Amino acid sequence: MQLWKTLLIIVGVIALFIIFLYNSLIRLRNQVKNSWSQIDVQMKRRNDLIPNLVETVKGYMKHEKTVLENVTKARAAMMKAQTFEGKAKASNMISDALKSLFAVSENYPQLKANENFMQLQEELTGTENKIAYARQYYNDIVMAFNTKIETFPNNIFANMLSFKQESLFQATEAERKNVKVQF
Predict the structure, then answer these.
(1) Considering the chain, what is the average pLDDT of its residues?
(2) What is the CB neighbour count within 10 angstroms for residue 21?
(3) Does the bond joining 109 to the residue before it have cis omega, within 30 degrees of 0?
(4) pLDDT recorded at residue 14
(5) Cβ-based neighbours of 61, under 8 Å, separated by 6 or more
(6) Which end of the chain is more exposed for a tag (fewer CB within 10 A), N or C?
């Protein structure tokens, strides 16, 4: 009789552990999804601002056609992207294209003085900052989730419950290069 009680207690503790682990993994997985959605929201906002920026700039930058085309192509790639990796790559393309656009705009004093351009540039800069923060938060949540499913004994149960590692949001090779500033 005593053996059955002990066995029942052990089984109960293991069941409670698995329930607690499962619920915490679900909570973390949902936080990962939510944090990715926050990045997606900011990237959508940026995509919505880009056509207005391109239209404002078009009249001033007749000689900088390729810069505007690159911004438009990057936006189109972002709109077509379906996977996490595809959206991350397209987002990085947009960031690079916008950097080029803002750098070239320095050659056009009338454009820099244009109120619409200044407002759009400020909104895009703010959005880029929000995207950077959201990426950092996403990576923090992914790290917590991945650590939880990789540590012992969680890894045994996480594997049995089909939890898989999530990918971190990483900078591209171009973003890792040092920025060259010339005066």
Answers:
(1) 84
(2) 19
(3) no
(4) 92
(5) 67, 68, 104, 105, 108, 111
(6) C
Structure confidence at residue 174 (pLDDT): 56
d(CA 20, CA 4): 24
Sequence-separated (6 or more) residues with CB below 8 Å from residue 123: 49
39-55 b/e (C-beta count within 10 Å ≥ 16 → b) = beebbebbbebbeebbe
Location of structure tokens 């990237």: 43
Residue 178's SS3 state is coil
- Give the amino acid at 122: E
Backbone angles phi, psi at 83, to 5 degrees: -95, 165
Q: What is the pLDDT of residues 92-130, one digit of tens each?
A: 888 888 888 888 777 777 776 677 778 888 888 888 889
Q: Is 173 exposed, middle or buried (0-12, 13-18, 19+ CB in 10 A)?
A: exposed
Q: Give the separation between CA 22 and CA 163, rounded to whole angstroms.
A: 9
Calpha distance 73→81 (Å, rounded): 12
Total residue length of the chain: 183
> Of 86, 170, 99, 85, which is closest to residue 128 (Cα–Cα)?
99
Query: What is the band of 182 on the pLDDT scale with cuts at 50, 70, 90?
Result: very low
| Direct distance between the N- and C-terminal alpha carbons of the chain, in angstroms, rounded to an integer | 86
